[in-house]
Amino acid sequence: MLEFYFDSIGKPRSIKSSELSLPKDASPESQALYYFARIYLERYEGVPLPKIPNLVEFGTIHNLQWVIAEAKLNQAVELVEADEVWQGELLLHDVINISRKIGYNSLQGRAYRWLGNAEVQRSQVQTSLKHYLTAYDLLENSEFEIQIAMTLNNIASLYMELSDWDRAKTYLDQALKGYLNSQEKYDNSLFLAIMYANLSVINFGMEKYEESERYFEEAAKLSMATGSVRIKHNSVSNLSQLLSTLGKMEESYQLAQACLDLPNPQNLKGMKASCYEAFSEAYLQDGKFEQAIKSANLALEGLSETASAETKQKMDLYLVLIRANQQLKHFEEAFNALELLRNLEKSFENHIHGDEMINIKLDLEAKLAQKELTLLEAKNALQASELESQRYREIFYFFVVAVIGFWLFRYIRQMNRINEVLAQENTTDPLTKVHNRRFLPNWLDNMARRSPSRRFALAIIDIDYFKVFNDQYGHDLGDKMLMHVARILDEATRSGDLLVRWGGEEFVLLFEISHADDCAKTLDRLRLAVENNNLEVDSDSMGATISLGAVNELSAQTIKQEWDKWFFAADQALYDAKQAGRNQYKIHSTS
Questions:
Q1: DSSP symbol at 12
Q2: Model confidence at 293: pLDDT above 90
Q3: CATH label of the domain that carries residue 455
């Protein structure tokens, strides 16, 4: 029965219908393995699920802790896929606690991988990456190679979100190699569909369009054989968007409609949003701007029904609204969508449209100004049917007539100010006011060029138990604590050091060192500064501690060229500091 269980995950397509029966004399352990295998066969291949008992109760009755843990993992997966992310995360923490106590590392690793998936749905990129790395550590020495490949694929997906195609391809190549070269000869259509879909996106990002289309067609075929409703919708929608980008409009429309026609037996919320998104992209590409706007709004309406942030998807939809409204000269509506896009960018520092957003804003500012001046000569030409759509411009009409000279001067000055403010916003974290990660590449370039002989330490700083603090006191106090810790760190560093908010409760610090022990002294000084300075809120005094991980004695050029290597080394040092009890630092050797 154990082989049947492993095959249900690794090679479900190889299982024959004659093997689907449960032996009458099966022990409780064998029964549990059978029931779990049937769950995975339904998930991966759509094999109908027989009536099975409540496996948490089953495990409790027979005193099988591993059964309770795996049953809760499956409940958590269903909750996450149904967009009940918070409830799913609570169950996943139960799974981690149980599996840790009984030494079931591979199940603990699977739970951490799904924690990463849950954080992705909440657009917490940095936190999800940390969970994936923990999962990889737990699974690395196991014989469950397909779970290792799944984790590497998840890491690749994160880099795809950041449009870092080279890194994404590196991790996906490792995932495919582990899957295809395994002695187990894996044959899981769902996982292979996901990897092919990711390969398609990566190749598209690298402008290899023929390869991209080929991989996605294969992914779509495989996904239709799975039991995952979400995968089916996403695959068809993504292929539709790919075809519209390639100019194959008729095929794109057909697939978008096929996506809408797919069944949704569990009535999962927001499931059709990706279908309407595919329509919006196709209509935009085809010059049908009114239909593009309507479809984008339907997609956003669908996403509003879900608890997941879906930040990246919303940003893409707002870009459709901006571009379509620009083409229709509906500049007010374009501006409204632009403001929504800007707000999303502030909450998702890694998204890829920052520069594009600035260009769009400047372009819209110029076009709005031109439109206002044109109104001076077109007052009597307005038609009654246009009055509603022109209301925004008419509000300013007489003001422009009265003070046109001053307004033009003000406009030019405002444009200069917008350029300055947007450039500053683009490299500054809006909450803590320290630099964000966009500032880092230029800083490293300058340091590598100006000071090639200077030595630096790279440190990652994490506020201990911040999620617990956030859950207990709420996001408002959580934000105050973030600002408080950022201020302390900023004040405790030198003017030539670089402090960056990396995401969530995590900061990155680059600082110069002259002697071997400078790194340890600096890290301990920062740790004590945070520990000894409480946040005062009304009559309450709230403390925090930090854990720090670092690598030492590197040149700026080395850090720049081998960023992944040294960042992950520092992150591992941070992990060691947390495992050792938090409120301390660890330094990994660079030799």
A1: G
A2: yes
A3: 3.30.70.270
